[in-house]
Amino acid sequence: MQRHFDDMQLGSIELFVLAGEQGSFTAAAAQAGVTPAAVSRSVARLEERLGVRLFVRTTRQIRLTDSGRVYFEQCRQALSQLVDAEREVTGQQTVPAGRLRISAPTPYAHYRLLQRVAAFRRLYPEVQVEVHISNRNVDFAEEGYDLAVRGRAPQDSSLIARLLEDAPLVLVAAPAYLQRRGMPRSLDELAQHDCIQFVLPSTGRLVPWAFLRDGARVELSAGEALVCAEDFLGLDTLAVHGGGIAQTYRFAVERELASGALVELLPQHGGCSRPFYLIYPHARHLSLRVRSLVDFLLSKDDPALLD
Description:
By secondary structure, the protein is an alpha/beta fold. The protein has three domains: about 5-90, Winged helix-like DNA-binding domain superfamily/Winged helix DNA-binding domain (Arc Repressor Mutant, subunit A, Orthogonal Bundle), CATH 1.10.10; about 100-165 and about 275-305, D-Maltodextrin-Binding Protein, domain 2 (3-Layer(aba) Sandwich); about 165-275, D-Maltodextrin-Binding Protein, domain 2 (3-Layer(aba) Sandwich), CATH 3.40.190.10. About 40% of the residues lie in helices and about 25% in strands. The strands form three sheets. Strands 3, 4, 5, 6, 7, 10, 11, 12 and 13 form a nine-stranded mixed sheet that branches. The protein has a two-stranded antiparallel ribbon with strand order 1-2. Strand 8 (about 210-215) and strand 9 form a beta hairpin. It starts with 6 loop residues before the first helix and ends in a 9-residue tail after the last helix.
């Protein structure tokens, strides 16, 4: 294998990553035990070698450029893998440690993932977890993610998808809305109601509602009286405040259904669900911290029992 880096270049990359994490040459220098000028020179050498600016510099702060952000995420991930490899080879990596990044959509993050991450951190406090909550698909290589939760298995053969759960769907509305507009008695009557829809960020299309009719799954486009984008939980908030009818995940509105703030509609056509998958790169070597979180998220242990 041809050499691409010498010791000075690897050292410059480490200082660049420290500066990106700290947002300051001075803070990076203090952590590395060198002078701020040494950090600045190292970054300048990297920029000259790459032919791009990595930071925007002002008298008070530094900020990663777009190219710098891409390079930073990939360098940070690569350095972390080097540290993991050394620890595993020398037998030092017996307890999960280090930083990992996971991306998850809003409903699953708030009602499933975050409580499990909190429980995971109680077991493994040396792991630093960054949770990015967004409904968009992420690029593992470009953005430096270790794991993601998504609603469909990817076509990319370089990624592994493990089913977390099939989440039941439920059709709901607030009592105030039903008093004003009446209770729908059939799927066909939904066309006469205010239906709250969600726009899928990856396609820009409305997510169709799913029902069972005569034992078969059917999908309906229920109109566009109200449309939410980006945050799926906006559907639930609009429904609670009488904005209309929404189809959402049952786990997200269990409390509202129990309290009467929302009412389940057309239960005779319920029974449909949508999956959530845990996705991560197909690699022969996963760090101990990533393997540990994968195993933890796929387990059926109740996080509350770990308090």
